[in-house]
Amino acid sequence: MQKVLVIAGPTATGKTTLAIKLAKKFSGEILSADSRQVYRGLDIGTGKDLPKNSKFLGFRNSGLGFYLISGIRLWGYDLANFKENFSVSNYLKATQKIIKDIKSRKKLLIICGGTGLYIKALLEGGETFSIPPDLPFRKKLSKSSPRELYNVTDFLQVSVPGV
User: Fold this and answer.
1) What is the DSSP secondary structure assignment for residue 119, as one 8-state letter?
2) DSSP class of residue 152?
3) Disulfide: which of 20, 40, 51, 143 matches 78 by Cβ 3.0-4.6 Å?
4) How far apart are alpha carbons 46 and 89 in whole angstroms?
5) Helix, strand, coil proportions of the chain in percent (round to 5)?
6) Distance, CA of 129 to CA of 110 (rounded, Å)
7) pLDDT (tens digit, 9 = 90+) per residue, 68-100?
C-alpha cells in the first residue's frame, strides 16, 4: 500500500503552499480536495493558488489535466463548468484516473483541501455517493414549511421503527 499525505483546513491558510514544499521534498503530486476549486473560472473567490501565466496541461485525451506550479503537478482544479451539477460522485470518478496515474509513477499522493466530504470519499469511499437524487421527493419537500421539514418522517413512505 502506498502512502498518502493529507493537508486539510480552512480556505486561505497556506495548505497549497505547504503541499508544494512537501511535494518537492518527497517527490509528490497534489490533488485538490476542494468542492469549489473544481469549477473552471472561479479562481479568486475559491482561493486557487495559481501563479500568473499558469497553464492547464491536458492529460492523455481524458479532459483531465493539471497545473504545473514550481515543477509540481497540481490536480483537481477546473474539473467542471460552474453551471453544471458536480457532486462528490463526479469528483470520485474524475480523481480515480488521476490517482491511478500518480501512483503508477510512484509519486506521493498529497491530498490538499478543505472539503471534508471529498477527503473522506477519497480515503474511505462511500456506497451512497453514486445514488441519484430523488427529484420528485425534493420537489415535494420544496413546497413544505420549515415546521413540516423538521418532522421529515411525515414525508417518508415507509415507517421507520423508533423514528
Assistant:
1) H
2) G
3) 40
4) 20
5) 35, 20, 45
6) 22
7) 988 999 999 888 888 888 889 999 989 998 999
